[in-house]
Amino acid sequence: MKVLVTGSAGFIGSGVTLALLARGDEVVGLDNLNDYYDVNLKKARLARFAEHPRYTHVQADLQDRGAMEAAFEQHAPQRVVHLAAQAGVRYAAKNPHAYVDSNLTGFLHVLEGCRHHGVDHLVFASTSSVYGANTAMPFSEHQSAEHPLTLYAATKKANEQMAHSYAHLYGIACTGLRFFTVYGPWGRPDMALFLFTRAILEGEPIKVFNHGKHKRSFTYVDDIVEGVLRSLDRPPGEDREWSGQAPDPASSGVAPYRIYNIGNEQPVELMRYIEVLEDCLGRKAEMQMLPLQPGDVPDTEADVSDLISAVGYRPKVSVEEGVAAFVCWYRDYYGV
Fold this sequence. Notes:
single chain; alpha/beta; two-stranded parallel ribbon; 13 strands; globular
């Protein structure tokens, strides 16, 4: 297949690109290489496959309608994996317009490209953050998710609804994947594991929010990548058992549309996560205990039974294995 991967210089996007190339697909990667975090890290991710004969890179911004139209027109992808977005939960308080421009306007441009160029399946990134104020665990796609607590989560919930409308109106098969706390090698510098590792190695205190009482479905990036590829290979159809009298938010009876959780089924306490990191680094962390941040939820736990049934796969890498792999990469990449 020829697959357009947006965010190909990103954490998950670069991993998906490598996996698609490894199995023989042709990839058109699109990324704007913005400076939300270290551009050199993004370039280093790209360098792993930039010269691959089946890879073509397009440097463009999602919100640039003309550039997005040109990318679809020139490259005519059969399928799209949309991972580019303005990331970061708390950055929205500083720059909310960036989220609207990238995550809403940009997503519209992706949908329009799929509509006008015969794309037969769109897989797009959503987030566990859409569950927001929900407290019933584990989180299920069949629950309502109408109370996001951050603008980032609200834009991702809007993406799900926009995708459903395009699936219904134009027959574009759409699959949304709600990622749960992804971590691993080549990760984002603004994420907890990266911040903790850097601080511990530099002898600085780490900020532990909610006094360490979080639980998270920490999910290793390779598990996420495999789930993305398996989902890409299985475009959804209409759900024959769906009822408008009791509508299931995870599927549709009027559109080829599906939402899946993708995350580790075994949530881990934040303090245990830090202990594993300390063991891998051979150093103890100095901790600054802080209250829960605005917009954060105390716990997440993924119900991935639908993903298992649909694509025959569940995330399986333990935090002990995953954190060790990250630390190995970090030490090698930064020479520490």
